[in-house]
């Protein structure tokens, strides 16, 4: 009888242990590389699938999140000096060293030798893409990375295109190919995951107040009104 009880106890403790193990499909600060593609003025001018204010705020969330959690990050531009212009201020805020940006002529980041080396050289099997435009600058590297066996995610509300149709069809195409969609706030909170992680708590909530829209207002309210 004691042996049976012991076996059941071990089994329950094992199940409890498994219950604490997060899915490998979740992102963590160390298991992926973030690639910010062509967040530049000229690319944003023709973006119609998302309001520019929302796009900039969402870009601020993911760039800031990657900085807070020290995520391996690659910032790439296309024809920066001759056509597309500088990156969004929200990207510059998190990554001010423009000498580290990779400027390309290729529409598909994956086909640029320097960018490819920078992305794959980070040594992670998960890659998260965000940028402009969804149907060109995100579809290209997403499909290419999937072909090479990478686990690919893309942040839908930190991407945009010349029309809702172009954006939505690009999303459908990537999902059909096996890429995983997520949102900017989801990205931030998935990296924090546990509010007991005090070392990043204030930075994350500060970022939410700054770029998190109504969620950020809620954080500000809680701080001031309930002292939380």
Q: What can you tell me about this protein's structure?
A:
By secondary structure, the protein is α/β, with parallel strands linked by helices. The chain is 54% helix and 13% strand. It has helices at 2-19, 41-45, 52-68, 80-84, 89-94, 113-120, 134-147, 164-177, 184-192, 198-211, 213-225, and strands spanning 32-37, 73-78, 102-104, 126-131, 151-155, 180-182. It has a 6-stranded parallel beta sheet with strand order 3-2-1-4-5-6, sandwiched between helices. The termini are far apart.
Brief overview:
By secondary structure, the chain is an alpha/beta fold. The protein is built from eleven helices and six strands.
Outline the secondary-structure elements.
Blueprint: H1 2-19, E1 32-37, H2 41-45, H3 52-68, E2 73-78, H4 80-84, H5 89-94, E3 102-104, H6 113-120, E4 126-131, H7 134-147, E5 151-155, H8 164-177, E6 180-182, H9 184-192, H10 198-211, H11 213-225
Parallel strand pairs: 1-2, 1-4, 2-3, 4-5, 5-6
Helix pairs in contact: 3-9, 3-10, 7-8, 9-10, 10-11
Give structural attributes.
alpha/beta; 11 helices; globular
């Amino acid at each position: 009888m004691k042996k049976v009880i012991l076996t059941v106890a071990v089994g329950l403790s094992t199940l409890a242990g498994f219950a604490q193990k997060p899915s490998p499909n979740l992102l963590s600060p160390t298991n992926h590389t973030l690639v910010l593609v062509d967040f530049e003025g000229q690319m944003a001018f023709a973006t119609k699938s998302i309001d520019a204010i929302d796009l900039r705020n969402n870009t601020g969330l993911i760039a800031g999140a990657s900085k807070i959690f020290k995520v391996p990050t690659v910032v790439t531009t296309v024809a920066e000096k001759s056509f597309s212009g500088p990156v969004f201020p929200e990207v510059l805020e998190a990554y001010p060293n423009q000498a580290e940006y990779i400027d390309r002529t290729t529409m598909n980041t994956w086909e640029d030798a320097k960018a490819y080396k920078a992305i794959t050289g980070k040594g992670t099997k998960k890659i998260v893409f965000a940028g402009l435009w969804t149907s060109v600058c995100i579809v290209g590297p997403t499909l290419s990375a999937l072909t090479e066996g990478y686990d690919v995610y893309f942040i839908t509300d930190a991407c945009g295109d010349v029309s809702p149709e172009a954006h939505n069809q690009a999303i459908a195409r990537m999902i059909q190919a096996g890429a995983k969609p997520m949102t900017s706030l989801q990205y931030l909170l998935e990296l924090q995951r546990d509010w007991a992680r005090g070392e990043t708590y204030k930075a994350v909530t500060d970022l939410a107040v700054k770029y998190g829209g109504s969620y950020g207002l809620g954080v500000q309210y809680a701080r001031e009104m309930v002292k939380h």
